[in-house]
């Protein structure tokens, strides 16, 4: 494998392309358990039949762990929106349709979203009263077993050159649970990217297409924001803490 063509640099990882393969190389010290879990997530989601780049190999390159997957030909929805701003609503609608397709699947061997959220709340460093309120709200939310991507944003959906098919990237955070929690995370990700207009349009589209009350998705926002603050960048934490406190608790 040739690590020559860098296609993305992320926090603690570098992503290369070598022909029909993508090699995600993790920095030294990255959790081995998290790397192996990501590869396992991909293998499990592959079994749902969704169009995703399959995992080909987990290996070590120059002492660093790496996951090798298939390459998805095309452009991300984020790229397409940037190149064709007049078609933004059309692409957002397709983005939501693809998310709904993901959430129509079940993947029983994945970690459970509510259990992951509970662990994250414990790691936030928030005061005991706020953690109690978040835990209580989380416990009161309905238990579902839908496939949740965990980082569903326009940079993780690739549309093929002919526009007919698509592929969904990055399954590191996949869980099974409540689809509205995943929608709340996507809404927050739009906000974190500074695209508030798309965040609001996304929320409207998701709620309309799934016949979900907007208030129900919003009830997840403090929980999801708290969870995101643990893995989020330091500069995002203050913003996310605002969301943790923005909704009055019943």
Describe the fold and architecture.
With 250 residues, the protein is an alpha+beta fold. The model has no long low-confidence stretch (mean pLDDT 94). 37% of the residues are buried. The radius of gyration is 18 Å and the shape is globular. The N and C termini lie far apart (55 Å). The strands form three sheets. Strands 1-2-3-5-4 form a five-stranded antiparallel beta sheet, with helices on one face. It has a three-stranded antiparallel beta sheet with strand order 6-8-9. It has nine helices and ten strands. α3 crosses α7, α6 packs across α8 and α8 packs antiparallel against α9.
Short synopsis of the structure:
With 250 residues, this protein is of the alpha+beta class. It is 48% helix and 18% strand.
Compute the number of helices.
Answer: 9
Helix content, binned percent: 40-55%
Question: How would you classify the quaternary structure?
Answer: single chain
Largest sheet: 5 strands, antiparallel
Strand content: 15-25%
What are the segments in which pLDDT stays under 50 over at least 5 consecutive residues?
A: none
Tell the overall outline: globular
Element-by-element helix/strand order: EEEHEEEHHHHEEEEHHHH
Radius of gyration: 18 Å
- Alpha-carbon distance between the termini? 55 Å
What integer is the average pLDDT? 94
Q: What is the total tally of β strands? A: 10
Q: In which order are the strands of the major sheet placed?
A: 1-2-3-5-4
The secondary structure category is alpha+beta
């Amino acid at each position: 494998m040739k690590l020559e063509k860098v296609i993305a640099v992320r926090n603690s990882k570098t992503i290369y392309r070598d022909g029909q393969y993508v090699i995600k190389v993790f920095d030294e010290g990255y959790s081995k358990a998290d790397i192996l879990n990501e590869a396992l997530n991909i293998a499990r989601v592959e079994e749902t039949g969704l169009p995703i780049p399959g995992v080909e190999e987990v290996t070590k390159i120059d002492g660093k762990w790496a996951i090798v997957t298939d390459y998805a030909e095309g452009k991300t929805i984020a790229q397409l929106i940037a190149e064709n701003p007049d078609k933004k609503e059309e692409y957002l609608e397709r983005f939501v349709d693809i998310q709904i397709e993901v959430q129509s699947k079940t993947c029983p061997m994945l970690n459970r979203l509510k259990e992951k959220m509970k662990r994250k709340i414990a790691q936030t460093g928030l005061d005991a009263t706020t953690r109690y309120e978040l835990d209580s709200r989380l416990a009161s939310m309905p238990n579902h077993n839908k496939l949740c991507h965990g980082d569903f944003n326009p940079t993780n959906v690739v549309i093929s050159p002919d526009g007919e098919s698509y592929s969904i990237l990055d399954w590191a955070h996949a869980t099974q649970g409540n689809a509205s929690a995943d929608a709340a995370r996507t809404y927050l990700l739009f906000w974190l990217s500074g695209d508030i207009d798309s965040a609001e349009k996304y929320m409207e589209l998701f709620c309309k297409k799934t016949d979900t009350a907007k208030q129900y998705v919003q009830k997840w926002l403090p929980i999801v924001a708290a969870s995101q603050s643990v893995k989020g960048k330091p500069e995002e934490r203050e913003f996310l803490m605002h969301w943790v406190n923005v909704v009055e608790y019943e």
